[in-house]
Design brief:
291 residues, four-stranded antiparallel beta sheet, two-stranded antiparallel ribbon
């Protein structure tokens, strides 16, 4: 039974019984070892879940309540064994608290960003034709392989001109790989990556490190597929909201972040690398005398 219960527990630290500092009292839906679980805690467990109506909703609520109960019981067992006093727990608790505070800070900031109107979304679509009217889908010949621990080894692939040469080099290096056709949609793709792709000579191979893997790519075809309709309106709306949220975060927090970071004191060897020195401005060209 404990294995099944453990599989139902959510990641992160156990929530404390309601009624503590900062928690309003609510209808009690269950009691575990004298600790009340209220409707507020149940609602928090279901946050973000699209709930149906009627009996199906009640079944989901009951399942969520059992998840809270299982987590509470197991957490109490852990406390009885003194696990909440171990350094690992204290470190993880601090990490979870900070992550949650940041998440709620972002949510609070997002709640104050006005939702764009349909007219604003349509204007955004007109101002960004590369994402909508001129949306591109790139056909790609792609090889995926594990990223080497020494990234300098990737330099050996830079002079290669064909995907067959890349494949042959991987075989020679004893690196496992998978070659398959792929597609890259300009909608949702990294704008900086798209800008680089558009500058590449036809047939040029380019590498993209992605986490623990590397993608070797060659564009084999491009087609224009306009992006419109309600899906495009929703995408434009989300993009505007994302941009507004970033602007709002910059205005509210950048100065505080800068000040706080300047006050950080590092032990030797732990400070981040210094940014590269700004290149000196090139001297202005001499004026060409008029003939």
């Amino acid at each position: 039974m404990i294995g099944a219960a453990l599989s139902l527990t959510a990641c992160g630290k156990d929530s404390k019984a309601e009624g503590g500092k900062g928690l309003e009292k609510g209808q009690v839906v269950a009691t575990v070892d004298g600790q009340d679980i209220t409707i507020h805690e149940l609602n928090a467990e279901l946050m973000g879940v699209a709930l149906p109506t009627g009996e199906r909703r009640k079944a989901i609520e009951q399942a969520a309540l059992q998840q809270i109960i299982n987590r509470r019981i197991l957490a109490n067992i852990a406390r009885e064994q003194g696990i909440d006093k171990t350094p690992m727990y204290i470190l993880q608790e601090r990490r979870a608290d900070e992550a949650l505070l940041v998440q709620l800070l972002q949510r609070d900031l997002a709640s104050k960003v006005p939702v764009p109107s349909r007219t604003e979304a349509e204007r955004y679509m007109q101002e960004n034709p590369k994402l909508f009217a001129d949306r591109k889908i790139f056909a790609i010949d792609q090889i995926q392989f594990e990223q080497p621990e020494d990234l300098s080894r990737l330099r050996a692939y830079e002079p290669l001109k064909t995907m067959d040469q890349v494949e042959q080099r991987l075989v020679e290096d004893g690196i496992k790989y998978r070659r398959a056709p792929a597609e890259l949609d300009s909608v949702g793709a990294n704008p900086a990556l798209l800008a680089q792709i558009e500058k590449l000579p036809e047939g040029e191979i380019f590498l993209i490190p992605t986490g623990r893997a590397v993608l070797a790519n060659r564009i084999t075809g491009t087609r224009t597929v306009p992006f419109g309709g309600e899906d495009a309106i929703q995408f434009a709306t989300r993009q505007i909201q994302t941009n507004r949220l970033a602007d709002s975060a910059t205005k509210q927090y950048d100065a505080k972040l800068k000040t706080a970071r300047e006050g950080v004191k590092y032990q030797d060897g732990y400070a981040p690398p210094a940014p590269p020195a700004a290149a000196k401005a090139a001297p202005a060209p001499a004026a060409t005398p008029k003939s």
